[in-house]
Amino acid sequence: MLTNENNFIQRLKQQKEDALDFIVDRYLPLIRGVTYKVLSPLEDDGLIDECINDILLSIWNNSKKFHGGSIDFKKWICAIAKYKSIDYYRKSNKKVEIIKDVIDLNHEKSAEDELIIMEEKTELIKLINLLEPMDRDIFMMKFFLGIKTEDISLKLGLTNASIDNRIYRGKKKLYNKAKKHGLRGGVL
Known about the structure:
Blueprint: H1 8-13, H2 17-39, H3 45-61, H4 70-105, H5 111-128, H6 133-144, H7 149-156, H8 160-180
Helix pairs in contact: 2-3, 2-4, 3-4, 3-8, 6-8, 7-8
């Protein structure tokens, strides 16, 4: 059975991935609009993309808590998008303040800190290499080279929604693989 207008909420509650694809195709512009409205003053497209992925993950994880029809669902995801975006905005502002404090107190990282960062990067690269080649390329372009989603989609001939969807699924896979390999939470 394929997900459609009439059954996507029920299938989402059953954790069917095609329901999430349907939601991404249908509601991504709405989610992006809400997120952009809150986070655009920060001028960080990467933060907006990360927030959108987090919103989709939250919709997935909390789908069983939703009760209502498609109109209520639209309001529900708008509320999730709004509050997640506000959380990201607050966290980003705190990070800027903390970073300023850290820079003022300690100009250079210790050898231990640099070693930990190198180990975490190495662990993360090992995990990314376990992904499918297309997903691995997307992750490398997005998170290591800092290329925007729009540019990645043009380069790979995919839609922005498809890139966002692959990032969302890839993060889930990486999280599960990190848990399976007993890696620390700081890696992801």
